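Components:
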Amino acid sequence: MRVGVLYSRIRRDEKLLLNELRSRDHEVAKLDVRKLRFALDEPPAELAECDVVLDRCLATSRSLYASQFVDSYGVPVVNGPETAEVCADKAKNSLALSNAGVPTPRTEVAFTKETAMEIIEDFGYPCVLKPVVGSWGRLMAKIDSRSAAEAILEHKATLGHYEHKVFYVQEFVEKPGRDIRVVATDGEPVAAMTRTSDHWLTNAAKGATAEPFELDDEALDLVERASEAVGGGLLGVDLMETGESGYTVHEVNHTVEFKALSDATDVDVAARVVDWLETKVPAEVSA
Amino acid sequence: MVDCPECGGSVTLHDDAETGEIIDCGTCGAELEVIGTDPVELETAPELEEDWGE
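Structure:
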């Protein structure tokens, strides 16, 4: 098949995917999103002949718009625009999980710092303030006191992009120093790992250490339901262990990075992703 | 071997370098983007933007 890879930067993840696709003799079209023009009616020529397009845009804004256009041209895109829209925004992500009955941390959103302060005081300390759009643990604040809350809210309201005036407050989950990242294709886990850190943030981008993790039945069920809640696709599902109540799903990522997972486990994640594409694409084309 | 557009130092690329890949200059530490492979061309990589990530 001809696979278009939408990108603006070739990370190790993209390189692994490109190498896997080429080694199986798939035709690969590298589509630099910075150079593409998206018309309303007709796709750019290099995109029109693709059997599937993999959205690997590094910037969320590009990913959101590009996947919409590709989808509107009738070219299958992974992930689809609906999934991208839900996953790109933490508020929409939390709503989707909650509406599907997937356990997720207690979360509230407010639009002024005064109301955000009310939520924070209700939640108690510590609690967490997150930007609705963002990755790699950037601009996440664990708030330990009222004075810290006042300062952070003031900074966000004054300095931030308009999206920072959407205040997303979440309970602080007392996890055992680690969280769980699962890469899944339409709800079926490819591989899972724990990310452990002394810091409260356990992102791989923040230097957390990774170990393989065996999913139990409850986690398997949650990954499947969380994937379905956001529209399915190639996803990174993030869970935390809560002790008494099992797991809580705090986020689902739609342009998932998997190099740390490939390094931490025996699973060749890129190969499994291409296996999935090889079954998914013919099924979609004939549907 | 190609010159770093930031410091002029020599940069060596792997044989399988891809257009769009980011490499570091060993001399000045600048992040460089491979914008062509035949012949190899490098440019200073774009700065990190707020909405970048997974």
